Amino acid sequence: MKISRVDFVTSMASFDPSAIKPVPRVAVAGRSNVGKSSFINYFANRGGLAKTSSTPGKTKLLNFFEVNGGEFYLVDLPGYGFAKASDAEKAKWAAMIDNYLASDELLKCVLVLVDSRHDPTALDRQMIAYLHHNRIPFFVVATKADKLSRAQLNRQLPAIANAFAMGRADITSVSSSAKTGLEAVLARLDVMLSPQQE
Ligand SMILES: Nc1nc2c(ncn2[C@@H]2O[C@H](COP(=O)(O)OP(=O)(O)OP(=O)(O)O)[C@@H](O)[C@H]2O)c(=O)[nH]1
Ligand SMILES: [Mg+2]
User: Fold this and answer.
1) Which ligand neighbours the alpha carbon of 57 most closely?
2) CA 61 to chain centre
């Protein structure tokens, strides 16, 4: 797949399919601060398209980005597990994510981002279990690969796969700051978005 352009379209607090085109959606999910919005900027090759922050809890709405003038949408989701959020805020974000994932009939795939430096959290495992249970295709993308040496990555990626009861081949790693790893993600998306998958 070739990405020629990515444009921000709209933000929503609750999912309204009538506000966007009826084309496939690929959502980007993961813990707060894991690098979802940065990944979207890397994907778009456009810094500043999705708002990022070193402070967790930056993305607070569902943000829709149109790829290649309407081939599909990338959906930047609020992060889960933001420790400093109030219980009310956590519940609101969890409901927003759940409402979206459960109701978008054109959702083709979820990229579950995890930090390559850390073992997955209980919330990450919950997300994977949720996607399994709801039969939503997904794959895991380990972020911030630039923070680890090749040797460390070679240890950490199998550990992450293991924590999710997946194979090592089910995980790819990216660095949005060093701009590495996108090709492998795009190759998987090609498969996920191919008409045979419908
Ligand atoms: N070194 C490095 N830092 C990264 C990378 N990706 C993101 N970051 C940093 O991680 C922090 C969080 O990035 P965001 O993209 O805002 O994370 P997010 O998952 O969208 O966070 P929320 O919207 O709060 O859920 C920022 O300080 C980014 O600069 C990466 O590949 N390498
Ligand atoms: Mg974000």
Assistant:
1) 1
2) 14
